[in-house]
Amino acid sequence: MALSDIAFKRIEAIVGSPRCTRRPEERICYAYDAAAGRFMPDAVAFPENAAEISAILTLANAEGFFVVPRGSGSGMSGGAVPVQGGLILVMNRMNRILAIDRENLVATTEPGVITSAFHAAVEKEGLFYPPDPSSSDFSTLGGNLAECAGGPRAVKYGVTRDYVLGLEVVLPTGDRIKTGVQTTKGVVGYDLTRLLVGSEGTLGIITRVTLKLLPLPASVGTMTAIFPLPETAVETVSEIIRRGIIPRTLEFMDNASIRCVENHLKMGLPMEAGALLLIEADGNSEETAKTLDKIQSLCRGHGASAVHTAATPEEASALWKARKAISAALFQYAPHKINEDIVVPRSRIPQIIRRIEMLREKTGLFMASFGHAGDGNIHFNIMLDKSDLEALKKAHTAVAALFDYTLELGGTISGEHGIGITKAPYLLKEIDPGALSLMKRIKKAFDPNGILNPGKIFPES
C-alpha cells in the first residue's frame, strides 16, 4: 500500500505544496521516534485542521495507502513510525489552546500543543493540569492522549485519561465524530473517549480535546532521601503509602541512574548511594510542611543516610532536571537502549527491584532502574551495543523473564509507554486470546480497510 504519484498530487491539493514533502532528506526526520528502528515514510504532510485530515483519510481509503499520525516523536515503543511505509501526518501545526474556562475548570485545545506550554498557560490562570510526562518540554498533548501518558504526579492525581472529558476525532474512514462531554459527569452511550485515549493512534486521529483542570495548589515542597540500599528505599515507598500519606510525587533512582546523571550534569549527587527518592508534597503551606515532616521522619526511621528539603524553587527545579535527564544521559554508557516500563502493585516494588538486581548479576549487562515508585511504575533500562549479538540475546532473555515475573506479581508490562512495535511480541503474555480477538474486531470496526497506523499493538501472526 505504497503512496502513488497520483495520491501525492491529491495530498498536495488538500494541504498545499509547502505543507507536504517526498524529499528523502525531509522524510528521514520522521522515520523514527524515541524507540529503536527506522522506517522510511513515502511522504510527510502537515495538516492544519480536521477538514484536511478527513480529506486525506478519505483519500487513503480510496487509493489504498497507509497513514500514521505523529506528534513530536517522543514515544518509547515505536508507535509513531511508519513500519509499512505510507504517509506521516505531523500534527504540530494544530497547536492552539482554544479556551481556558476558569469558572468550569476545563480547557479546550488542539493536539499539537506542547505539554509544558499547556502547563504554563493554565497555571498562569491559577489552574493545574497534573499529567507531567518526563518528555513534557517537547511532547504534545495529542501524543500524551494516544499513549495515555502518566508521569511523576500520577501517584496522587492519576494519568492522562483521568483528565480527558471529550474529543473531536477523525476516524480512519474520514468521518468526523465528537465523543464525551464538557461536564464532570456524563453517561450517555458507550465511553468512546476512554476507548480512544491510549489507543496509540490506531482508532482515530484526535483533532480537539476538552481537558479537566484543578485549582493550582498553593504550595509545593520538594525533598530527597538517600539510601544505602535500593531495597530499603523502595520498602520506604511502600511504608509511606501504607501510612496513608499520598505525596504529589514519589520517584526512585537506583545507583546506576544516580551515577549517570551526576556524570552528565555535575550537580553533586551522591554517587556512592544505593538509591535516591525524590519526593514532593503539595496543598496549602501548612499541609505541605506537615506532609514533608512525616515523610522525612519515615525515611530516617527506615535507614536513610541523608534527607534534604529544597530551600528554593530553583533548587527543586534542578532536582527535577536531574530526574528528567536520566533517560537521555544513559547513552553515555552504550549506543543502544532497551527501555521498558513495568508496573507492579506498590507492595511488590521491593521484589521487582531485587529481581532486577539478580538479572544484572546473572547477565553482566548494564542495567538502570528509575521511575514512579509511588504508583509501582519502574522504568527498566538495559544499555548495550546491539552489534554484540550475545549481549543482545541476554538482554531479550532478561526482558522476557522480567515481564513474566511482573505478571506473576500482579503487574503489567507497560504503564505509560504503550505497546507500539517494541512490546507487541509480548502482548499475549498479558492479554488472553479472547480479549485480543475482541480488540482486533474493534480495530476492524473503526478501520475496515486497515489504513491507520498499521503494524502497531497486535503481534504478527
What are the main properties of this structure?
461 residues; globular; Vanillyl-alcohol Oxidase, Chain A, domain 3; 3 domains; 18 strands; 21% strand; 5-stranded antiparallel beta sheet; alpha+beta
Q: What is the general shape?
A: globular
> How many domains is the backbone divided into?
3
Major β-sheet annotation: 7 strands, antiparallel
CATH topology of the largest domain: Vanillyl-alcohol Oxidase, Chain A, domain 3
Distance between the termini: 19 Å
What is the helical fraction, as a range of percent? 25-40%
Return the structural class: alpha+beta
Biggest sheet, strands in spatial order?
15-12-14-13-17-18-16
Number of helices: 15
Q: Please state the CA-atom Rg, rounded to the nearest Å.
A: 22 Å
Strand content: 15-25%
Mean pLDDT: 95
CATH superfamily of the largest domain: FAD-linked oxidases, C-terminal domain
CATH architecture of the largest domain: 3-Layer(aba) Sandwich
Walk me through what this model shows.
It is a single chain. The chain is of the alpha+beta class. Helices cover 36% and strands 21% of the residues. The protein has 15 helices and 18 strands. The strands form four sheets. A seven-stranded antiparallel beta sheet has the order 15-12-14-13-17-18-16, sandwiched between helices. A five-stranded antiparallel beta sheet has the order 5-6-10-8-9. A hairpin with a 5-residue loop joins strand 8 (164-170) and strand 9 (176-180). Helix 1 packs antiparallel against helix 3, helix 8 (230-242) packs antiparallel against helix 12 and helix 12 (349-363) packs antiparallel against helix 13 (389-408). It is globular and about 70 Å long.
